[in-house]
Amino acid sequence: MLTSSLLAAGLLLATDVPLDDLWKDPTFQKEFLGSYGFQAELEPKLTTLERQEMEKILALMATDTQAAMAALERAAAPESSAVFDYTLGNMHFQKDELDEAASGYRTAVAKFPTFRRAWKNLGLIAVRQSRFDDAIKALSRVVELGGADGLTYGLLGYAYSAQGVATSAESAYRNAVLLQPDLLDWKLGLTQSVLKQRKYGEAVTLCEELIARFPDRAEFWLIQANAYVGLNQPMKAAENYEVVQRMGGATPQSLYTLGDIYANENLLDLAARAYRNAIDLDPRQAPARPMRCVEIVAQRGGAAQAKGLADHLRGVLAATLDDTDKKKLLKIEARIAVAEGGGAEAVQTLEEIVSLDPLDGEAILLLAQHYARANDPDKAIFYYERAEGIETFEADARLRHAQILVGQSRFQDAVPLLKRVQELKPREDVGRYLEQVERLARSQR
Known about the structure:
Blueprint lengths: L3 H9 L7 H5 L1 H8 L14 H14 L3 H11 L6 H13 L3 H14 L4 H13 L3 H13 L5 H13 L3 H14 L4 H13 L3 H14 L4 H13 L3 H13 L5 H13 L3 H14 L6 H12 L3 H14 L6 H17 L4 H13 L4 H13 L3 H12 L5 H14 L3 H14 L3 H17 L1
Helix pairs in contact: 1-12, 4-5, 5-6, 6-7, 7-8, 8-9, 8-10, 9-10, 10-11, 10-12, 11-12, 12-13, 12-14, 13-14, 14-15, 15-16, 16-17, 16-18, 17-18, 17-19, 18-19, 18-20, 19-20, 20-21, 20-22, 21-22, 22-23, 23-24, 24-25, 25-26
């Protein structure tokens, strides 16, 4: 039996984890090596002399493996039976000399192309070495030769999955599940394959079976949560993410996704809680994602929750925040304060930022917006004009500047600003606005 946790981990990590425990498993080794007997209908024949030589070698294996290998190397001549090369390959495998083992098997199938056991062993070693193209070729050949079993189909599915061929992986895993229905690894592989194909409903159903058998396995709950997201059932996904958190299996990514779901549903207290937990799980994480979470909560009207989250972020991630991050966080907090229509302290912070970096267009625009809301159009225009000199912010600044002028009935002054906006970033709504302002400007003449 395979070690399920290892293979499952491989599947969940894009199948890039070696299946080390598989090769150490006694049951697998027995199946891999089999006996050193032969299957006459599919395997090369031995002449009388070769058979006598092989019997001597088999006897040596029980007492002196080095002598047996030396005898096999002498016997595995280009004109001799492929059985010698195959047996030599098996002995190298027992010593974990995989390159040498694969070389023996390749020589065997070159001599005898229908040597099914040699093809299978080639495929198994290729999977272990992450040579998935070679694994697919060898294991598919085993299927063609009528020797497919659950292990062959399962590892074929694993190889296809590693290559990103989800449809073929699904087919192989279905056969593996049929032949080895109690093996968790193949069911998990099948679930991952259908999920990659966006067959979300089927993935949910397969996960229900996995969860019923192994309710304490967080990865099954997470896979099902992803499927619920794909089905546009975010609150069902949220239930799974909450279960995973109570199990102690949450990751920063799962908690950020949970927070996003709550934010989209306007459940801002729950969103902030999930984001805080995500921050706490990895105090060394890069600050970009948690800062974006503060912005998300603020944009949805959760000023208080956003302020609390920003304070929490600053406290937990203090060691990872460089000067650029600290400035960005200050601007986020200032934006929240400006959006609320107050914040003398925030304005002071923004002015300090601008004094340190006169080309910080975002801070300049925030100051302009603050003074526009504070009914101080002259100061607002002053800052908008400064922002207009910064290429990245010119279009936005000119548009907002024009809006202030329109509010003052200065339509003729607003028209050139809006025309420049359309040159920089043509937009249908701005175009309509420009037409209206031009009509008003003509009426003033």
